[in-house]
Amino acid sequence: MTDPTTATTKNSADRRPLSSRLSGIGAGLLTLVILASVSACGLGTSGGYIPSARLAGRLADVPRMDGAHISVGSKNFTEQLVLAKMVEILLKSAGATVEDLTNIPGSASARQAQLAGQVDVEWEYTGTAWLTYMAQPKPIRDPHDQYVAVRDKDLKENQLVWTDPSPMNDTYGLAATEATAKKLGVEKLSDLKKLPVKQRTFCLEDEFASRSDGFQPMLKAYGLKYGVDVPKKNVKIFDAGAIYSATAKGVCNFGEVYTTDGRIAALHLSVLADDNRFFPVYNGCAVWRQEVVEKYPQTRKLVDPLAAKLTDKTMTELNGKVDVGGQTPTKVAEDWLRSEGFIR
Question: Fewer CB within 10 A of the terminal residue: the chain, N end or C end?
Answer without folding.
Answer: N
